[in-house]
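EI: anyone free to look at a 139-residue chain?
SC: sure, send it
EI:
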Amino acid sequence: MARPKRNFLATAQETSSPPASLDDNHTIARVRKAEGKNLYLVELPKHTDPLLVELPARFRSQIWIKRGGYVLIDTAAFLDRDNKLDGEIVNVVREEKEWRKQSYWPAEFVKKSSYPEDSEDEASTVGKMPPSDDSDSQD
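SC: here you go
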């Protein structure tokens, strides 16, 4: 039997807007890889070692997380357990523009342009004819 639609709508509403402030043990992380079984490998803004975090049951089959997306994780969730998990996903960043406006958004996660920046030195060749070989016609 399928889950009621109200559960999906409540989860979607919860993840649609960013919180006003973060707890001490909450941090924003970028998803690097889906490890399977609702486990994700994420990277923190200042740490080079990736963390393994778990997606809680309330998000499973309701919210999809893609590689390169952002999540809010709780690093203190599994401190009392002795296992390989480093944290739990508390929230999924869906409206990235709204989250980036918050003061707690890490500066390391700047938005990269999809297109490489054009250098100022190179002139654009759009709409111009290819260079002609005047040296051949002068002979």
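EI: The two ends are 85 Å apart (CA to CA).
SC: 👍
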